[in-house]
Amino acid sequence: MNVAEKKARVIEPDTLIGKRIPKMDAPEKASGKTRYIHDINLSGQLHGKILRSDRIHALIKSIDTSAAKALPGVHAVITAADIPDQRPIGVAKDHFPLKVGRVRSERDEIAAVAAESEEIAEAALKLIKVEYEDLPVISNPEDAIKPDAILIHPEPHGADGSHEHLKQGMSIAHKGKPDNIAMRFDYVHGDVIQGEAESDVVIEDTFKLHYVTHCCMGVSGMIAEFDSSGNLLMYSNTQVPFLHKREFAEYLNMDPARIRIIQPPIGGGFGSKLDIYPFEVICLYLARAAKRPVKMLFTREEEFLASPTRQPVLLTLRSGCKKDGTLTFRQVHTLHDNGAYTSWGATTPFVMMQTFSSLYRVPHCDYHTAAVYTNNPYAGSFRGYGNLQATFAIEQHMDMLAEKIGMDPLEFRLKNAQDAGETTGQGMSFKSCGFKDCINTAAQRSDYARKVQENVANRNAAGNIKRGVGMASMLHVGGGAKIYPSDGCGTILKMDDFANITLITGASEIGQGSETVLSQLVCEELGLPISAVTVVNNDTAITPWDVGVHASRTTFIAGNSAIGAAKKAKAKILAVAATKYECAESDLDLRGGFVIKAANGEAVVELSKLLRNLHFQDKAELVMTTFYYEPPSVHQDKGFKGDVSAAYAWGTQVVEVEVDTDTGIVKMTKVTGAHDVGRVLNRLGIEGQIEGGVIMGQGYALTEDLMIENGVMKNPNFRDYKLVTAPEIPEMDISFIESMDGEGPQGAKGVGEAPSICIAAATANAIFNATGVRIYELPFTPERVYRALRGQTPKLYWKPWKAN
Amino acid sequence: MTELKHYFAPTSLDQAVECLKDGDVTILAGGTDLTPQSQAGRLKIKQTLMNIRHIPQLSGITLEGKEIRIGALTTITEIMEHPLIRERLPVLVVACDHFASDQIRNAGTIGGNICNASPAGDMLIPLLVLDACVELASMPENKIYRHCMPLSTFFVGPGKTRKSLCELVTSVRIPLPAEGHVAHFYKHGTRPALDISTISIGVAGTFRDGTLSNVRVAFGAVAPTPVRASQTEQALEGQRLDEATIEKIAQIARDEVKPIDDVRATAWYRKEMIHNITKRILSHVAQA
Amino acid sequence: MSLKHDIEFKLNGITRRVAVDVSMNALAMLRDVIGLTGTKYGCGEGECGACTIQVDGVSLNSCLMFAVDCDGRNVTTIEGLANDSKADALRSAFVEHGAVQCGFCTPGMIMQADHLLRSGCGGDAGSIKRGIEGNLCRCTGYKKIIDAIASVSGAPS
């Protein structure tokens, strides 16, 4: 052995953080090999289909399933009468999966069939006869709160006047609701009367936000199978497997321990899989009744009709400021169209109030809201969760107040923007806050200040194309949100003889790239390449508990959990190495697949070799660690106050438009965004999240409109529900502000929901900048804009209303 | 109620028109309208489904005397890319470019678009202003009988035409435009394609010395069928296109159409667009 | 039961014979009869492009095509691009550029992009955008998809 060979190898420092790392699941997806729920078939599987109401609001007088049951190939036909132990579902437990005695919306489930094929199931549905007695329809939330309004959930009783079994429970589905108010929130900090008295300028406007829906490219589906011992295996695209396991158990009156949920890759989530919907429970009933696996998939039309929406909101905002630009107060009243039943949409005021109370420094803030029952589709959770609606109003008022006092809108925002270290009236404490950096960066990169002036000067110039620029900012939770007793996530980390890692995480991958980011974080701790990791994240029988994918929490919460497990593994490895090589643990580190000397990077031993030694010794040991991360956030008190998230994300977006005054067509030409993301972990992934979110925001602002008339959906298809297509996308210039959050994994904060939030608000401001016309209602379709430009739009006004 | 009982894929025109004799036949060309309509139950396939793909006489774009003949099976992509069309009928290329998506342009045929008779059919408006005729074939006795019908009289209502159940559309024939011929097509929408038009407008004629003659104006999505606008045409005929005339004609166009409210727009907005875009197109013609 | 018809066609280079329901579309045949699930159902109306395949060298929506109309033709699905070097480059570009998120639109998007590249699409962002206007994506905002296609088009970026 010569001297040169003996010289120790030096491993240079390297990092995965901030790199452009392709998604680990992308190669399979790009080859068409990924098996989504639609692509999975179990032997012996039946196909389930649901009969939905063809009335909007009616009593069910009778259901005759005899002909359907007689059709060859049909294995089960069920109605509410066949499931006497049905339990109500939903956030307010206000409906049964199969409707009992009454339908309240177009999507309502009346009966279901399991058959040998989809065609037979569909043929069977056509043979089911239902008699209805129509009831008056409430299609407008303002009508729902009128004193003489028909009740959507009256005390239930059947045609014969009795439904004794229904009265045994305590939920709304059992005992009814004496008014049409599904949920209320009242929030106060400071004293708005005093705030108004201190104001030099006060403005009040009503804003109207519309129905949109998720449009996941993969339609909803589920496969359910009971084994011979009665254990249930579900293939489901839920975003919250562990909470749902418990809920499904309740609906089936079985032990949650006997339910296993496998989550196949998902064709898009965006919040739509956060609740349990009737079809899922019905699929379980069918599987139980038919004693065969049952697969249920929606058609696209059904996906429109029966999956949740973003919540439509009527919002009256009163704001004030002083001449020097200090905000004085903000008073907000909102009326939310809950639809016929209550899902997460009813709780969006939780998030809206954060924007009202805390996006800017507001000394006095009041917010009163009611979500009311109507016969419309019911709203669920959707990326941004109420924040798109709140920001639409707040950021338009920021421009309007600035104009009233003759202040530059940029300066006005900067004067009132939050800083790090502040605690807001709602008790949110901003440990890291790059808000002002976001505003300044977006403004500079878009040349906002110059363009605002230039566009105003050109408003009356010749030509039908008017250019506009508008700004809006947002605040959103970026470190989870403590809604449940725990907001945590577990990790199990296992290393094998070859120093490969199996990362078993509670966090679900819904296309957002969580498995790649989690792998990066673990590899960063253990000094391994990303190819060393296999992620297991889709089976409740294997993965540790997690609260679910929502509130932009996965990178933050699951990331910290994964780091925790990796740190424990690292400590164990270094302890073994220190003993073996007779040095202090602190002298060693892991890098490039080696144990190295921390001081100079000299390789001590290959990690895989060390792990094999550890395994194949007298007292054999394996490196397997677990970690559960619980963020240091708190539950809000009864007044909705408290530091609900471990970190908060900020962002500012500047939208540029061209308005064609001949047609009302608004073209979005450029979006300049600056986002405080704490730290960029995977640059490729975070760009993808932001770009996708921006375009989703563009759809909300300009093209997407789920039209409901008298409870009937007029456009349940992609022909008339217009998602943005490739030629319509604006140029995008995205900057990241790295505020290095102290609690965040490697300093990162959540970002998933942030990019959609500001677009509609900034677009409204841009259209005003271009034309001098302010439009208070979404979406900015050609006709709506054209009408407004021609002065054909009456000023919206909804009188603030408060229930007794 | 008849059930689908036969599938037939003729390889000659004779076989096809022979099959059509009993009238209980659904004709399949590109399939881009028929497939989703039948799958969704909006259209019931008759006793026989006849796939005309393999009939050679229905393909191709040719110059026949003073007419351009486009075979009924010609896809929108083929029309868009054909040198003869690009050179002599550029307005058709514009319409093709706004037609659905690349995938649908690759499959959808001109014959299918005509027979589907949508009030908003993208190709129909430019064809109307180009004085296109539809060539129909049938077999009343034992011989093929062909005749042509002007497209302007072909449409009866949404999805309804004057083609009898025994007839097959074999081609569309377009007279070669004369010197000085101008033709414009505008489709209103927020995106270049993949959109059912809110309104569409076609204007054609001979433009000489600032005046437009031999005028053809057609509107889409403002009536149960694509329509020629006779009052607008008359008002425009031989007029010098100055600003006041253009405004007057745009108003006549607005008053002439009787659109409806639907999910895409209200009647009021459609009338406004007919006015504004007619004005835009005429100004464009005047400035050229 | 429903009327069946025997057809014979080339599927991914191999001659297939299959009996299909005459009323069935090509998408259902590929997925449910033949078992190739790479081609996706997104809307069934030709509005989303998730079911894009290539027939006789052009891309089209398999949901808008009768299965019987495959008779005598040359059909390629995403699975058929597995051993194609040009398609390989496209797939790698999608991965490297972050053009895949949930991935549900990806097979259709790649089939369409592959057709564009083979049919001499300009390779500039404008023609690529128009080329994929019939393919909806809800996750990515299209930018990375456009970048990925441009990177293998040979056109200067």
What does this structure look like?
- The complex is a heterotrimer of chains A (804), B (288) and C (157).
- Chain A is of the alpha+beta class and 804 residues long.
- Chain A folds into three domains: 26-33 and 488-629, Aldehyde oxidase/xanthine dehydrogenase, molybdopterin binding domain (Aldehyde Oxidoreductase, domain 4), CATH 3.30.365.10; 215-306, Aldehyde oxidase/xanthine dehydrogenase, molybdopterin binding domain (Aldehyde Oxidoreductase, domain 4, 2-Layer Sandwich), CATH 3.30.365; 313-481 and 637-789, Aldehyde oxidase/xanthine dehydrogenase, molybdopterin binding domain (Aldehyde Oxidoreductase, domain 4, 2-Layer Sandwich), CATH 3.30.365.
- Chain A has 22 helices and 28 strands.
- In chain A, the strands form seven sheets. In chain A, strands 3-5-1-12-9-10-11 form a seven-stranded mixed β-sheet, with helices on both faces. Chain A has a five-stranded mixed β-sheet with strand order 7-15-14-13-8. A four-stranded mixed β-sheet of chain A has the order 16-24-25-28, with helices on both faces.
- In chain A, strand 9 and strand 10 (232-236) form a beta hairpin.
- In chain A, helix 19 (683-703) packs across helix 21 (759-771).
- Chain A starts with a helix and ends in a 15-residue tail after the last helix.
- The model of chain A has no long low-confidence stretch (mean pLDDT 95).
- Chain B has 288 residues and is of the alpha+beta class.
- Chain B contains eleven helices and 15 strands.
- Chain B has helices spanning 13-20, 34-39, 76-81, 83-88, 90-97, 102-107, 110-116, 124-129, 230-236, 243-256, 267-287; strands at residues 6-8, 25-28, 48-51, 61-64, 67-71, 133-138, 145-150, 155-157, 160-161, 168-175, 181-187, 200-208, 211-220, 227-228, 239-240.
- In chain B, strands 4-5-10-6-7 form a five-stranded antiparallel β-sheet.
- In chain B, strand 13 and strand 14 (227-228) form a beta hairpin.
- The longest helix of chain B has 21 residues, at 267-287.
- Chain B starts with 5 loop residues before the first strand and ends with a helix.
- Chain C is α+β, with helices and mostly antiparallel strands.
- Helix content of chain C is 33%, strand content 17%.
- Chain C contains five helices and five strands, in the order E-E-H-E-E-E-H-H-H-H.
- Chain C has helices at residues 26-34, 85-96, 106-118, 125-131, 143-153; strands at 4-11, 14-21, 52-55, 58-61, 74-76.
- A five-stranded mixed β-sheet of chain C has the order 2-1-5-3-4, with helices on both faces.
- In chain C, strand 1 and strand 2 (14-21) form a beta hairpin.
- In chain C, helix 2 (85-96) packs antiparallel against helix 5.
- Chain C is globular.
- Chains A and C meet through helix 2 and helix 19 of A and helix 2, helix 3, helix 4 and helix 5 of C.
